[in-house]
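Hi U.,

Before I forget, here's the chain from the pilot set. I'm dumping it here mostly so it's searchable later in email.
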Amino acid sequence: MSNMRPVHIRLHSRYEGEDVLQEMQGEAVLKGSVLYVRYEEPQVGPEEVQPVQH
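Structure:
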């Protein structure tokens, strides 16, 4: 039986001056002092991700 718990993930990435924020569902489990997180990266084009406003 798995100890995986559902989680909401917010991934903020920066690359070549572009900031992108993605939100997705995933699973997490704590084993000892290590947190493991599993999620599928969304298959979206650049027009579907949210740029971060500063």
